[in-house]
Amino acid sequence: MKEEDTCLISFHSNMAPSRRLKRVVASQPGFLSLKSSDLTGAVSSRRKRVNKNKKKNWNKHSDINDVEDFLEDVRHQERTTGGLLADKSDDNLFFLDVGQQPKDLKAPEQVQGKKRKGKSQRPLRIDLILQHDSLVPPIKDVLSYQQPNAKKLRGHAKRLEQLAAKGVVPRTQRKLLNRQTSDTTAKKAATEANNNPNRDYYDIWGQETKSSADPWYLQQTGKKLVKRPEELNKKPSVLPAVEVIGPGGSYNPDFFSHQALLQEAHDVEVKKQKAESKIERRLAFNKGDRATEETIFQEQVEGLVEEEEEKEVAAVEEEEQVAPVKEEEQVAPVKEEEQECVGGAITLAEKKTEKQRKREKAEKIKEQLRVAEKSLKSKQQQLFQLRSIKTAIKKREKKTAARQKQRKAKMEAEKVQPRRLGKLKFQPEDLEIKLSDELTSTLRQLKPEGSILKDRFKSLQKRNLIEPRERAKFKRRYKLKYVEKRSFKAIT
Which residue in 135, 198, 249, 373 is deepest, having the highest Cβ count within 10 Å? Predict the structure, then answer.
């Protein structure tokens, strides 16, 4: 072994006892180290060992202050600048300060009778307070953007875009392009002199002349225009677009017209209360059908006390079953005798003679003649009943005319009423009225009621232009989960 190796071994052997001595001294309770970390560790309590494998200990024993500070800084940048500073260009962050120009150093000269230009452009403090100081855009209202069948419409629009990118024309558009309208313009007539009094009158608002082509050819080639039905030219309702309320709805009506409007609103409310009370009466519980202690006890004891009665009933049923069997045994021989007699009668039946057949034929002919004579007499008798028949016909005609009149009146009344266009029934809007103590003498003090948008929407439904409908109910696929932030929990 070399001298260097021997020196190294002796050095390590001398260092080992000193280190051991230091560890022993540091383990003493009254020892204070000179390091800052040791001093702080001695003052602070010993750190608790926590199992980080469990999820409930993650948030409780994890220091996330640096993450919260970073997120708060990001939110502050979004509020003040509208985004992150790292994403913005230098032109948006810096500007060139050229100093104040000598023109700006001059005091503005005030002209008598005029205000300074800069003072009029300065906004008021109340406007500055009400201004939105955050550059973060407001949250989008999801309900205002939702519409029924939105997913289906987006898929249809996407398919159309794909076809347009490939250069393929959709089938519906292709049919419209291939359809050529027939030339319905009239041929130019030969020019006539303006001073000819016998020339035809030309109506510039008149209908265009029909095509001179063969209608069969137009129908087979698909160039014939479809005739518009006459029903489409009729209005769906005779009601006006804007219905004017009665004189009782004025802001300063007279007494009698206002009372008439209040009576109309009262009748509507009474009708609603009657419908509600009718439903309550039908759903009311009959007190006589209420269970008592006696009936409850009978239900509980059912099948426990009636064993003897059941035995007696079973014995009576057995006796009733035995009695019909004996009667059938007695009736059986009688039936056999009757069958034998009937069989003998069938065997002893003789063939009818010619005289008997002639007699039956003569009787049939007499019966036919009697029926024909009776019908002839009834027809002759009707000649003497012409007056009574005429009066009966007149009565029937009067009844039919009255029914036709009622039917026409009903049809005229239905023109004013809204029709049933969908599964929902039209519900008229409540009357907008003012009570006697709410009336005002001036139009300035009048408080507006109702909504113009709702009024127009109900008017379209009442005039049968759109069907009564409700707002589409959108059901979320997953429920919303509300979680309180740590910053909010710290405050509360």
Answer: 249
User: What residue has token string 């970390």?
Assistant: 37
Residues in the chain with pLDDT < 70? Answer: 1-47, 100-120, 180-195, 197, 201-204, 206-213, 305-311, 313, 322-349, 492
* 424, 470 Cβ separation under 8 angstroms: yes
Name which of 247, 270, 248, 244 is nearest 436 in CA terms: 248
Q: How far apart are CA 59 and CA 52, in angstroms?
A: 10
Mean pLDDT of the chain: 78
Residue whose structure tokens are 């039946």: 349
Nearest to 250 by CA among 241, 240, 261: 261
Query: CB burial class (10 A; 0-12, 13-18, 19+) of residue 429?
Result: middle
Q: 160: phi > 0 → left, psi -120 to 50 → alpha, else beta; which?
A: alpha
pLDDT digits (tens, 9 = 90+) for 113-150: 455 554 567 888 898 888 888 888 888 777 777 788 88
pTM for the predicted model, two decimal places: 0.39
Residues 6+ apart with CB under 8 A from 79: 133, 134, 135, 136
Considering only CA atoms, give the Rg of the chain.
Answer: 53
Tens digit of each residue's pLDDT (9 = 90 or more) over 329-351? 554 554 455 454 444 445 556 78
Note whether 52 and 46 are within 8 A (CB): no
The pLDDT assigned to 276 comes to 94
Distance CA 342, CA 335 (A): 11
Contact 254, 247 (CB under 8 A): yes
Q: Which region holds residue 450: left if phi is over 0, alpha if psi is between -120 and 50, else beta?
A: left
Instruction: List phi, psi (to 5°) of 144.
Output: -70, -20
Q: What amino acid occupies position 409?
A: A
- Per the rule left: phi > 0, alpha: psi between -120 and 50, beta: everything else, 303 is left
Long-range contacts of 46-49 (CB under 8 A, 24+ apart): none
Give the whole-angstrom CA distance, residue 479 versus residue 423.
Answer: 30
Please give the backbone phi and psi of residue 120, each rounded to the nearest 5 degrees, phi first.
Answer: -70, -25
Residues 169-181 as b or e (16 or more Cβ within 10 Å = b)? eeeeeeeeeeeee
Encode burial over 1-24: b for 16+ CB neighbours within 10 A, e otherwise. eeeeeeeeeeeeeeeeeeeeeeee
Question: Is there a contact between 118 and 104 (Cβ–Cβ < 8 Å)?
Answer: no
Q: Choose among 186, 211, 212: nearest CA to 200.
A: 186
Tokens found for residue 9: 């071994």
Query: Which helix (H) or strand (E) covers residue 376, if one does?
Result: helix 354-383
Give the integer Cα–Cα distance in Å for 427 and 449. Answer: 19
